[in-house]
Specification:
The complex is a heterodimer of chains A (129) and B (318). Chain A is α/β, with parallel strands linked by helices and 129 residues long. A five-stranded parallel β-sheet of chain A has the order 2-1-3-4-5, sandwiched between helices. The longest helix of chain A has 11 residues. The relative contact order of chain A is 0.19. Chain B is of the alpha+beta class and 318 residues long. Chain B is globular, with a radius of gyration of 24 Å. Classes of the chains: A alpha/beta (129), B alpha+beta (318).
Chain lengths: 129, 318
């Protein structure tokens, strides 16, 4: 499988660590994490490292997931980078709302750590949700 | 308290949009009332009929329920906040345990592996309980919403069977699926899978090892009917009336033995009824139970089922 740099953004340090370990079960996924929407934007503004996918927690203090998505779309390098929201179990209409913001998928929390990488690959591969 | 004599009923009944017959047995409605200063407030209106020598009187009792409504709203907010706050630490715990028992950190000594499995299974049970409590809270606050589309009921059933295959294997219970018809229904796929999975996991849970759970999907008049039959102990006579109530379990030891939340059937019934259908059951003491879900089939012209997606159950957004 192809190499896949992934940025995981979540304000909860323990969840960041678990998610990074879970994603790295796939040896071709390389994970960097950010603790807030603005920390994520700082990483994305730096051209040295370009993620092929961004996993964004929805509920974060200050700049939340949807807010961060809107701002990162203004960066020319990331106008089209696939973004997947991670959120506590949401109802169908909330999922539709998140997809309408320009994400290509929504993954529910708590996620299954053993299949998180495969889920991400499936979302990226399928193009839709 | 209002007493409406014969001839005074009509304006009240018309306003409430109820027929005179409907009042005969008594009727309770929540309505918004207005005070003299124009402020609106919620009330409970109880209407009853009383036959007197001069004809039928309607007796109306109106009660201000502002305090109760405020308390309900506080309870809803409390439940939803607590549940969301519980999820955050649970995500880390379930994730860590899942990685450990999945072997992501290398092989564990047998005893450590068993202990991790126990912790992981119970963590998932806690997550299910929180999900169920949130669903009940959505039902009670009127916030349970559905994203309905035409879908093949057979596909939803097959997928639920696949999702529970591992659970059945673990308990030594087999499943057989007899698809006699493929009704297309208008449903929220995720929610309908939740219902089927709930009924099916109950059937597996109460089956003795070595037994089979039989599923039949067929057409019954204008409905599609899914029957799930188990050969467990059956539903105790005394419990049959409350089986669809919240936190109802046949006896308190069941919670510990079977690991349920007592909310699943209450949630399933609500979901099915909100799809225009019905859940019912038959049971024979000592010889098992059959749970049936009847759902209205879509008219022929609308039969374009969407494809139910296959994915890992935990990661799906419900």
């Amino acid at each position: 499988m192809s190499r896949l740099p992934v940025l995981y953004v979540d304000d909860e340090p323990d969840i960041r660590e678990v998610a990074a370990l879970a994603l790295e079960i796939d040896p071709d996924i390389e994970v960097r994490t950010a603790s807030s929407g603005s920390a994520a934007l700082d990483i994305l503004k730096d051209a040295a490292w370009r993620p092929a996918a961004i996993l964004l927690d929805v509920m974060m203090p200050a700049l939340d997931g949807p807010g961060a998505l809107a701002l990162l779309r203004e960066l020319p390098a990331h106008a089209d980078t696939p973004v997947v929201f991670i959120t506590a179990r949401v109802q169908a209409h909330e999922k539709e709302r998140l997809l309408a913001l320009g994400a290509i998928g929504v993954i529910a929390k708590p996620f299954d750590p053993m299949t998180l990488a495969a889920q991400l690959r499936a979302i990226l591969g399928g193009g839709a949700r | 308290l209002l007493d409406l004599g014969p001839g005074e009923h009509r304006p009240v009944l018309e306003r409430l949009d109820v027929s005179p017959d409907a009042v005969a047995g008594g009727l309770v409605r929540e309505i918004t009332a207005r005070r003299a200063d124009g402020a609106r407030f919620p009330t409970d209106l109880a209407l009853g009929a009383m036959e007197l020598p001069d004809g039928r009187h309607l007796v109306a009792m109106i009660r201000d329920i502002s305090d109760r409504k405020r308390a309900e709203q506080l309870k809803d907010e409390f439940v939803s906040t607590v549940s969301h706050e519980l999820r955050t630490p649970l995500t880390s715990i379930a994730g860590s345990l899942g990685l450990l028992s999945g072997g992501a950190a290398g092989p564990l000594p047998p005893k450590a592996e068993r202990l991790t499995e126990i912790a992981h299974a119970n963590c998932e049970r806690l997550i299910r309980l929180i999900n169920d409590i949130l669903d009940i809270q959505k039902i009670e606050s009127g916030n349970l919403r559905f994203d309905k589309a035409p879908v093949s009921l057979a596909q939803l059933v097959s997928r639920s069977v696949e999702d529970l295959r591992g659970y059945g294997d673990g308990l030594g219970v087999r499943m057989t699926l007899d698809l006699r018809s493929d009704p297309v229904i208008l449903a929220d796929s995720d929610r309908m899978i939740q219902v089927i999975t709930n009924l099916l996991s109950n059937a597996i849970k109460f089956s003795p090892t070595g037994e089979t759970v039989e599923l039949v999907l067929e057409r019954k008049g204008s409905n599609g009917r899914l029957s799930i039959r188990d050969h467990g102990p059956g539903v105790p006579e005394a419990f049959r009336d409350q089986i669809f109530s919240k936190f109802a379990q046949a006896d308190s030891t069941d919670t510990r033995q079977k690991g349920g939340t007592g909310l699943g059937l209450a949630i399933s019934k609500e979901i099915v009824e909100r799809h225009g259908g019905r859940v019912s059951f038959e049971s024979w003491a000592g010889r098992g139970a059959t749970f049936q879900v009847d759902l209205p089939v879509l008219a022929a012209g609308l039969q374009r089922p969407s494809v139910a997606r296959k994915g890992p159950p935990m990661g799906e957004v419900a």
